[in-house]
């Protein structure tokens, strides 16, 4: 092997092992995440500022994501009627209430009004349904369930809208009507929550 190809191999090895994948320079104050990916401390700080505490390589959450959901209230109650596909248990009915208010610097149009909402969602009152309820409460506490944006149904701006964590807002009608039966729903919503660091 020639001296030149040996040198190229050494450089390639250096680039993959001793260089930050963000700035492509040698590490400065190297930080390793739980997923084992390594970055310069300042590069990771900039990436976190832009995208939240998510590994730029594998997308694993390494910190606490806090959303821009306006203040509101989440409560739940147990209904005795079963959901389609869950005949052996009752139903958890979740109620969300986000009052209207003024957008902050975190929102699309600071200083302008936003219009609040009331929503209900449903889970089976079994072990997995209660686990999802616990995760949804955690996500609500971290302001991740709702955001302010354009309503998909009305096209109006300045609306409180769902924020990519899907809910069953109907007890029946199947997936097309945002209801049950939908045997994959609980595992899907747990994956959506996990993608936001909620486990």
How would you concisely characterize the structure shown here?
Belongs to the Deltex family. Helix content is 27%, strand content 21%.
Output the keywords.
single chain; 199 residues; 2 domains; two-stranded antiparallel sheet; 4 helices; 9 strands; globular
Structure description:
It holds the Pfam family DTC. Keywords: Cytoplasm, Metal-binding, Transferase, Zinc, Zinc-finger. This is E3 ubiquitin-protein ligase. It is found in: Cytoplasm. Belongs to the Deltex family. There is one protein chain. Strand 1 (30-32) and strand 2 (38-40) form a beta hairpin. The protein has 4 helices and 9 strands. The chain is globular and about 60 Å long. The strands form 4 sheets. The chain has a 3-stranded antiparallel sheet with strand order 3-4-7, covered by helices on one side. The model is unreliable at 4-15 (pLDDT under 50). The protein has 199 residues and is α+β, with helices and mostly antiparallel strands. It has 2 domains: 3-51, Zinc/RING finger domain, C3HC4 (zinc finger) (Herpes Virus-1, 2-Layer Sandwich); 73-195, Enolase-like, domain 1 (2-Layer Sandwich), CATH 3.30.390. Helix 3 packs parallel to helix 4 (185-195). The protein has helices at 3-18, 41-51, 127-141, 185-195, and strands at 30-32, 38-40, 73-79, 91-98, 101-102, 113-114, 117-124, 146-149, 159-162. Helices cover 27% and strands 21% of the residues.
